[in-house]
Write a structure and sequence with these properties.
12 helices, about 0% strand, Tetracycline Repressor, domain 2
């Protein structure tokens, strides 16, 4: 089946997202974006007057991605480990697709209104989501962790995942496509509790994260 031809506005948004991810939000000018698209800068301005307007359009897709991820709950797969793998796979897709939103806030400043208004809800919902998945691992005796401390574990895991790419950027480490920064972020959150995981489960999660990256790179090729 042929790939659908994107409308000009959608093509601009997609190209901007890819360039922001690749080069960094602060490094991409509207002139560079127009050149990349093979159009006059005036034609770009017809659709988007500013980079901020482009950011808002990308943020709308980001909001849809968050909403889809928050619908993942334990019990949707054959076992709770696969449920957690599915959650992490969705997180990896989220980080790779909207890499610059997680990495470049120091450049683009505060979130656009559509994100800043929902950010507290998204964070709280993410804490609850990860706590549910971790509780399922505890219930199946795959994670040895006090139930009363699962909330803190979920919060810390979410913080590492949410700010992992920004941390790598601040440390001067590479974060672009193909650097493994997303994979390292996912593996880093496991260090909070992999010592308390049943060994086979810990190995399954680490192996799954590596497999996810290989699949994502293959899809992007």
């Amino acid at each position: 089946m042929a790939t659908p031809v994107l409308k000009t506005r959608d093509r601009i948004v997609e190209a901007a997202r890819r360039l922001f991810n690749e080069r960094g939000y602060g490094e991409v000018t509207t002139a560079a974006l127009a050149s990349h698209l093979g159009m006059a800068e005036g034609n770009l301005w017809y659709h988007f007057k500013t980079k901020r307007a482009l950011l808002e359009a990308i943020a709308a897709h980001y909001a849809d991605s968050i909403a889809a991820r928050l619908r993942l709950h334990p019990g949707m797969a054959t076992d709770c480990v696969e449920d957690y793998v599915a959650l992490l796979k969705t997180c990896m897709h989220e980080f790779r697709t909207f890499r610059f939103l997680f990495r470049d806030q120091a450049t683009y400043g505060e979130h656009v209104e559509s994100i800043s208004a929902q950010a507290p809800h998204w964070l709280e919902a993410s804490f609850v989501q990860f706590e549910e998945h971790l509780a399922a691992l505890v219930d199946h005796r795959l994670l040895d962790w006090p139930r009363g401390q699962l909330r803190d574990l979920a919060i810390n895991a979410t913080i590492i995942l949410r700010y992992g790419l920004e941390h790598f950027r601040e440390m001067g480490e590479p974060t672009a496509e193909g650097t493994g920064a997303v994979r390292k972020t996912l593996l880093r959150h496991l260090t909070l509790f992999d010592h308390a995981l049943e060994p086979v489960t810990a190995d399954r999660l680490r192996t799954a994260i590596g497999r996810m990256e290989l699949e994502a790179l293959a899809e992007a090729a």
